[in-house]
Amino acid sequence: MAKYGRMGRSSSHRKATLRNLAIALFRHGRITTTNAKAKEARRFAEKLITVAKEDNFNTRRKIARDINDKEVLNKLFTEIAVKYSERNGGYTRTLKLEPRRGDNTEMSILELV
User: For 2, what's the count of Cα atoms within 13 Å in the CB-facing half-sphere?
Assistant: First the structure.
């Protein structure tokens, strides 16, 4: 059994979705998405922040594989990781919203704490 949500996507589509959600989260600090995507994006983003707390050439290259926006990558290392340097996990928060009007899908806000 998988330890992650497949979200009805192929592996490459799932990776691209998580990367895009993480970039949007780091750029804006808060995003609105479905519960399933929020849960998976939370796991993905928290791992990136944990790695970014140690700022060196190797960790920048590791994270640059997933974050292909230089502006967001720089913000992750200079602002976000520094902000959470004393914290051991729990960098994000999920707030549930009312269901989406069109298809009644449960929605959430994913934000940096």
Answer: 7
